[in-house]
Amino acid sequence: MSGPAPRSRDFERRAYVEIHNPNLQEAMGLAKQGFVGKRASAVAAVPEWEQLRAAGREIKEHTLAHLDWYLERFEAKVRENGGHVHWASTAEEACRIVVDLCRAAGARRVTKGKSMVAEEIGLNEALADAGLERVETDLGEYIIQLADEPPSHIIAPAVHKTKDQVSDLFHRHHRQYGLTERQTEGPALVAEAREVLREKFLTADVGITGANFLVAETGSTVIVTNEGNGDLTNTLPRVHIVTAGIEKVIPTLDDTATILRLLARSATGQEMSVYTTFSTGPRRASDLDGPSEMHVVLIDNGRSQMLGNEFHHMLRCIRCGACMNHCPVYTAVGGHTYGWVYVGPMGSVLTPLMIGIEDSGHLPNACTMNGRCAEVCPMQIPLPDLLRVHRERQHASRLDAPRARMMLRAWAFLARRPALYRRVVDLGARALAMLGRRRGRLRWLPLAGGWTGSRDLPAPQGETFTRAWRAGRRPR
Amino acid sequence: MSDSPQPVGPASDRPRVGLFVTCLVDVFRPNIGFAAVKLLEDAGCRVEVPDLQTCCGQPAYNSGDAADARVLARQVIEAFEGFDYVVGASGSCMGMLHTHYPRLFENDARWRARANALADRCHELLSFLHDVRGVREVRARYDSTVTYHDSCSGLRELGVQRQPRALLASVEGLGLRELEDSNVCCGFGGTFCVKYPAISEKMVTDKANHVIRSGAGTLLGGDLGCLLNMAGRLRRMGSPVRVYHAAEVLAGMTDVPPIGDGEASS
């Protein structure tokens, strides 16, 4: 167990609440349309898309097969460039390293770019506990910081908020800066956030960013952003700290270019993000700007345990968010329902591995196995199959829902005894047909409330197919 | 089945086809089974219905109970050995046979070989008619605008998408209006729909609203599970849209009430 406290046990109740939350539904409706349509157009414009996916997968698979070697190479290059590398096996260790670095820098104010691994290790709480002022600089992250909420999406953390809700938040929190007018238009809201953040950027002592890639060949850390906040976070403060999972390393700049082609198209439907920033060591004597110290914190936190078992596929994930954008469950219930840092299909695979299946049993089960996530995953991660592996583990350790387990066992008992099965289903079909004869459907059925609560049950025609076939009764 | 004097190969004019009825068709909608038989016979196949079939085991498989799924898979594999083809009117069940049976026996060479042999010969009905038997038109009439839902397993595991549309285009009187988000799950998901009824309801309501907005008088699809779900929700919402399996329309067997309608309401 590590990072923020999970609330995934509450999935079912939370799902119900969010489905009936008009703000969430409005926000998710807009987001879904935008993400899905834009990705589809961007992908359609790349005829070699499938080959590109295969190439991206190959790069990651190769790197993961030689992960130790590439990580050590990356470390050596960072040091060569004048940077520092720190290794953290757990969330606690990672937080301690970052906090110690901040203290050593005498920091009071810390600016942060978007980093999911920072959420994963619970860095925000650790910084607060250390008495540091943290300023989120990604607009979405800034919004949810004001709202005191966790992100609900891995690339669009405030996707669950409507513009109206953002107006209210800014109006309430920006008064202290003399900004008293309630802005309602997108550009005005952005301008206001920019005005407030500008002074924070200039006065921060430490800047913390994540990394989309760690390039072993050059020792560079790479981030992609659309707001430029990442550049201000990693160049203006004296100290730049990068938090990154160990699976982010890839061999070369060429490999980076290949995966970059997949990333933005899958994430936002852009060909490239607006900013793609390579940080290669601290400021050199000839540089006009940049931090005087650069630190990279390489975080394991359970990743090395995924190497070599069926979940190693998940280490290819480049955190684009396409799986959740295309997931009909995620877009119905929103990210907070998942109750931990990672959400949607990738979260339903990762979260049980990181916080334990006991606390997250709903996540792998709340999926229809429709396969849309795997279809759009740029890294060809077989997400539904991995969810099924979780279900197998739950079943093996008797952690699946007792009632469902019993019903299925009964069904399987029958289905493996064809003669008995025939008698039961012939009878059942006839009984249901009689009950629903006039209308052709049933509005209610004992023990079937899960179905009939929201839909009628179409009634069987009467005689089963098998019985009619054997008796030679064919229509017409 | 092995006593046929001259085994007929798949390339022959009259291949021997084992019909995988599917448990839902068997119980809820035999008409789909008979429509499948008619379409297969019209396409020159000799159709048989093996006795020992019950369920493909997908509910167990997707619930993490691989052991029970394996037992049922062996039963299906045995029942359907010796046919030139195995065909079923469900992308979901046929996807189970085609894609997932071989995986179930990853560590069992003997059964894996038998599962692979089955996988190579099994097909979803509409894609079989179109892609394997080369059917381009059917003799049927259906006077209505229809819309079509692409069920997930057929679409993503078996590539069933253009085949039903191509066949439906040959039905006299039928006009197709494409459904918005036709490739998005309807919220059925096997046991999902009763395990997470609130989420399933939200998904099927979105689907039903798209169906209603399409303006079509009839909703068609290729998987009875999804059709029961969508018909059930459409009826509960008071919509008059009629729901049939595409095979029923293609076979001209729409003289029975639509799914979820009785003699009284149709």
Please give a structural write-up.
The complex is a heterodimer of chains A (about 475) and B (about 270). Helix content of chain A is about 50%, strand content about 10%. Chain A contains 22 helices and twelve strands. Chain A folds into two domains: about 10-305, 3-Layer(aba) Sandwich (Rossmann fold), CATH 3.40.50; about 405-470, no CATH class. In chain A, the strands form three sheets. Chain A has a six-stranded parallel beta sheet with strand order 1-10-7-4-2-3, sandwiched between helices. A four-stranded mixed beta sheet of chain A has the order 8-5-6-9. In chain A, strands 11-12 form a two-stranded antiparallel sheet. Chain A is α/β, with parallel strands linked by helices and about 475 residues long. Chain B has about 270 residues and is of the alpha/beta class. Chain B folds into two domains: about 15-130, Rossmann fold (3-Layer(aba) Sandwich), CATH 3.40.50; about 135-250, Rossmann fold (3-Layer(aba) Sandwich). Chain B contains 13 helices and eight strands. Chain B has helices spanning about 25-30, 30-40, 60, 65-80, 90-105, 110-120, 125-130, 150-160, 160-170, 190-195, 195-215, 225-235, 245-250; strands at about 15-20, 45-50, 85-90, 120-125, 140-150, 170-175, 220, 240-245. A four-stranded parallel beta sheet of chain B has the order 2-1-3-4, with helices on both faces. Chain B has a four-stranded parallel beta sheet with strand order 6-5-7-8. In chain B, helix 5 (about 90-105) packs antiparallel against helix 6 and helix 11 (about 195-215) crosses helix 12. Residues about 1-10 of chain B have low confidence and may be disordered.
At a glance:
The complex is a heterodimer of chains A (476) and B (266). Chain A has 476 residues and is α/β, with parallel strands linked by helices.
